[in-house]
Write a structure and sequence with these properties.
By secondary structure, this protein is of the alpha/beta class. It has a single domain (about 10-175), classed as Rossmann fold (3-Layer(aba) Sandwich), CATH 3.40.50. About 35% of the residues lie in helices and about 15% in strands.
Amino acid sequence: MRYFSHIPNELLDRAKPIRMLVTDLDGVLTDGGIILDNNGMEYKSFQVKDGQILRYLRDATIQVGVLSGRDVAVSKIRCEQMNVDFHRHGLTDKWGALSEILSDKGILPAEVAYIGDDLIDLDLLQRVGFSAAPSDAMPYILDKVDYVCRKGGGKGVFREVADLILYAQGKLPGLLSENSRLDPTGTNPTNNE
């Protein structure tokens, strides 16, 4: 697949054993912006494409989680809508929270991919098997991750990493075939011309 041709084989090899994809929320699932109304209500914008890949990750037996440093109702609502396997909010020690989850689920740190964008994510990014950051993450974060996404926060970063993992594991081409309207000969069966 041409989209992944820029990714080195060693990076694809790091993504092959991934059994869990975990992400930060603000700055990854969102652009990091916060909109407040006069009553103090907080609003955020999320990329729908990030949520659409979740069922395919589940089908590939890859668990999904969200770890957020902020404790905000709208973030929890989005995590529930996405039906992620777990989400924790208001964290100051993301690695500690993830360690407990991994212990409960019997998953090794080497089998985890994490997407983060700022200092609170740094320790965790350096302990997992595959680390990624949006292109607009802090420069010192970009220097520490395995993969710098082509997209910025809130622009489909989670989807980009999920697709990369599914591609590395050989599962993305099958998903494309299953969801294509083309018949095996490469022609569109609904085209009557």
